[in-house]
């Protein structure tokens, strides 16, 4: 897998991104841990101990809240408080949820904020893809809600923490604005014609939580000299433009040997929001593609920035599912 530095949790594919002067941390990646246990949904304030109450939160839904620092000893059990009740869809186990959030330590030190990135995060809830505190607190809540979560260490990152931002045995405080339940699968129809023989053969079958199979062509270990893209599943939603951000599931392999470079289905189970201009070949390869589509893109070495060309000297092939377009 291709991860950002600063932890072992899945991130947006840094290796494919074009260089920028400053790098922003995106997604609810600080929440992702390899824990698979799933508990029942929390309802209201589910902490039974009398230690520190959830910190006071001010600000309106949809805008970054102000969270006071915790007072006294932090609670030893998960505490959940619905600050604003929404009337949208109910979050169910396995849903991909789009949300804005901010997280801070009990002492008030902020360690992550989607508002700073100016983009909501999308993550799968209730299946062990995020910390236990989120899985237990957010399943059963409705979109449009603002939820405060106080997660003790055993519902967060435990004794090890998440250095350097989260020390071991930290109690974490989150405020989460649940915006919507995001689509997790494309809904287009397979294109009724043979696939381009210059490209790897990619399955048009849409399987829940599973990447399509990518069959590399025999005897060919270098991408064609020019960028090639082909829509193999045709959707009928909004078109991708040069400045679009797409909600996507994708898998990526090297042309030589078909080495797996990235797979969002395997990373955290949730689709990712990615500006098409960020990944070489996507801006042109996805131009005009409609939401609901699956596209195969072959990106030759020359399409990558100079500092990445050695790493991707044989080229890369992507299979991109376009779930939504912004």
From TrEMBL:
UniProt domain PPIase FKBP-type: residue ranges: 94-182, 243-300
Keywords assigned: Isomerase, Rotamase, Signal
Keyword Signal: yes
One Pfam family it belongs to: FKBP_C
Reaction equations catalysed: [protein]-peptidylproline (omega=180) = [protein]-peptidylproline (omega=0)
InterPro entries, A to Z: PPIase_dom_sf, PPIase_FKBP_dom
Protein EC: 5.2.1.8
Keyword Glycoprotein: no
Positions with biased composition (Basic and acidic residues): 65-78
Region (Disordered) residue spans: 1-21, 43-78, 185-221
Annotated GO MF terms: isomerase activity
The protein's enzyme class: isomerase
Family according to the record: Belongs to the FKBP-type PPIase family.
Upper classification of the organism: Bacteria, Bacillati, Actinomycetota, Actinomycetes, Kitasatosporales
Extent of Polar residues compositional bias: 50-59
Signal sequence extent: 1-42
Protein name: peptidylprolyl isomerase
PANTHER family: 39 KDA FK506-BINDING NUCLEAR PROTEIN, FKBP-TYPE PEPTIDYL-PROLYL CIS-TRANS ISOMERASE FKPA
Sequence intervals crossing the membrane: none
């Amino acid at each position: 897998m291709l991860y950002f530095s600063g932890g072992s949790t899945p991130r947006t594919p840094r290796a494919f991104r074009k260089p920028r002067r400053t790098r922003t941390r995106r997604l609810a990646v600080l929440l992702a841990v390899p824990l698979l246990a799933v508990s029942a949904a929390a309802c209201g304030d589910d902490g039974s101990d009398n230690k520190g109450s959830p910190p006071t939160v001010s600000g309106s839904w949809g805008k970054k809240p102000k969270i006071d620092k915790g007072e006294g000893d932090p609670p030893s059990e998960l505490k959940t408080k619905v600050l604003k009740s929404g009337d949208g869809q109910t979050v169910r186990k396995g849903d991909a949820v789009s949300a804005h959030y901010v997280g801070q330590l009990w002492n008030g030190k902020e360690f992550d904020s989607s508002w700073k990135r100016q983009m909501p995060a999308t993550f799968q809830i209730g299946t062990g893809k995020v910390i236990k505190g989120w899985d237990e607190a957010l399943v059963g809540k409705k979109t449009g809600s603002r939820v405060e979560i106080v997660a003790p260490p055993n519902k967060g990152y435990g004794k090890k923490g998440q250095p350097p931002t989260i020390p071991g045995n930290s109690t974490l405080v989150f405020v989460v604005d649940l915006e919507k339940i995001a689509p997790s699968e494309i809904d287009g129809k397979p294109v009724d014609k043979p696939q381009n023989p210059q490209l790897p053969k990619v399955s048009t079958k849409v399987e829940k939580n599973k990447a399509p199979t990518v069959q590399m062509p025999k005897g060919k270990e270098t991408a064609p000299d020019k960028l090639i893209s082909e829509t193999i599943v045709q959707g009928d939603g909004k078109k991708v433009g040069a400045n679009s951000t797409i909600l996507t599931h994708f898998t990526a392999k090297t042309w030589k040997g078909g080495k797996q470079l990235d797979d969002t289905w395997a990373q955290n189970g949730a689709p990712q929001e990615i500006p098409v201009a960020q990944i070489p070949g996507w801006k042109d390869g996805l131009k005009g593609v409609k939401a609901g589509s699956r596209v195969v893109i072959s990106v030759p070495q020359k399409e990558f920035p100079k500092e990445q060309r050695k790493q991707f000297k044989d080229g890369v092939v992507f299979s991109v599912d376009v779930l939504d377009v912004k």
